[in-house]
Amino acid sequence: MSRATVRERLRYWFDNTMAKGTGALIGWLALLSVTLILAVSGLVLWLTPGEVNAHEGWTGVLWMTLMRALSPGKIASDTGTAPFLGLMLVASLGGIFIVSILVGVLSTGLKGKIEELRKGRSRIIESGHTVILGWSEQVFTIVSELVKAHASQRGSVIAILADMDKPAMEDAIRTRVGDTGKTRLVCRTGRPTEPADLDLMNLDAARSVVVLSPQSEEPDAHVIKTLLALAKRAGDHPPVVAAIAASGNMAAARLAGGPGVHLVDSVDTVSRLIVQSSRQSGMSVVCMDLLNFDGGEIYLRSDPALAGQPYGKTLGAYASATVIGLRTAGGVMLNPPMDTLLGTSDQIIVIAQDDSLIRLAGDAAAIDEEHIRDHERARPGPGRTLLLGWNARAAQIVRYLDGYVPAGSVLDVASDHPGAGDGLVGLHNLTVSVKDCETTDRYALESLEVGLYQHVIVLSDDRHHPHHADTRTLMTLLQLRDMQATLGERYSIVSEMHDENNRTLAEVTEADDIVISDTVVGLLLAQLAESPHLSEVFGYLFDSRGSEIYPRPADDYVTGGAPVAFPTVVEAARRRGETAIGYRLAAGSGEAPHFGVVLNPDRSRLVVLGPGDSVIVLAER
């Protein structure tokens, strides 16, 4: 290989200096300006010595040349000999060239600096803030819920790091969430998988970190890489909450995040909620009300005064809180056996409006024995369920449904999705058949004879954009409602959607339950971000093992039409081995935001429960 020439070395050196940015360019222009001024001034001293005396010597010539280089218009007022005027013209022409380049360099450099400031690349100087890494539809739910949770706290901060333009993030949240009250929002542009960008968020002083699953191909790979970056960084590690889209990636995510990470299985959670809602009308509304920060929240309480008492007796121990379970050394138990004794180190799990309102009742509440009903609940027999549509979680929904229904039940899948019916192996209680059907077509739906089914589940088609998929779901729901009205048929309808804003539109269809998948996951992430220690409680709540939430007919528990206090309802449920946590009034089922659900009711207030009303209990299947 030949040796570099002197010219090549000089060119290489020059290129390296130019690559140093705006400062280096200005330096070269300054050097060029000095060279031009000295060269022109030297020629004036040599070629026109008479002009030197007329312009106050050599210092005057230097100043005149400098002014012509910086302000070429001054040459119009010059007088003197032709060589002198020619040299001033050269200085002016060189000045035009240099000043033009300088303006361009400064403009480009200033624009770049403004863009950098616009993106938000400065390090956050906050403490006790909640950090959200990534961007998805769930970010609006999480921010909205955290704003509610921090409504009484001055100076709370939510910091978001995402690979988006900072003003775009702020505008989107301002549009979808609105006023954030006392909570400040700080956005930064960066990649959550890059350690240098993570340093912008001051994670050492953060209260908790939420990692969102992006709306892209292989979202879990992005989440797992972010968890690795968080685990490997130096300094303090706040609790981390992350959403995983595929159940098969949970083990890898847990390994990547370490013991400090709390994972939410998005597909599993939504699938279980859809199945539970299809069997128990109103289930999704109850869960949404329990997960949001509008009403009652879940707290862990230690009360040594209750140690040694059976769980059943603690159900009436609090004046303004509802007991739902225990946390022992062996783990969380919701609705444990009524004779379970409370240990000295055990914690009681309660629902309350606020932690400061949880206090022991002075006296046991009066129980109205004459209104307690001892009605044996009949076990449902085999039924028929229609599944309209198909998506990536449909097979998991069918497997969970197989675990809920009695043997001999029938499931018909109607969809034009090419993968409809795939992965349905090892079912024990369901007999499944697949039919090709365009689920938005009225005549295709009528050919299914929907009236033969007790339950209908409408799934969102993942082949389409979420907004378009919701539009198709609304079309299907409207067709089903019209068919019910025209043919006089009645069957429960559970629908899956993506956007919470479509719930209002879907209310026209009078579907029994509408599961907003992104909202459910967002609410759960917000709860865990605020209270990471509740991860075990929510994990138990959405697990098919143990007790689950059931809205059951109120007349199975108390006399219909008679005014009763909630402690009487709690006692009626206790005698069945169940824990009552509230009720749902049919008259308010269409009224947002609670849709008739009342959790942790006022103990002293009388309520009349009639036909269509439900008592919400934690019970075994």
TrEMBL record:
InterPro entries: CASTOR/POLLUX/SYM8-like, CASTOR/POLLUX/SYM8_dom. Residues 268-359 form the CASTOR/POLLUX/SYM8 ion channel conserved domain. It is a multi-pass membrane protein. The chain crosses the membrane at residues 21-47, 84-110. GO terms for cellular component: endomembrane system. It is found in: Endomembrane system. Keywords: Ion transport, Lipoprotein, Membrane, Transmembrane, Transmembrane helix, Transport. GO terms for biological process: monoatomic ion transport. This is Lipoprotein.
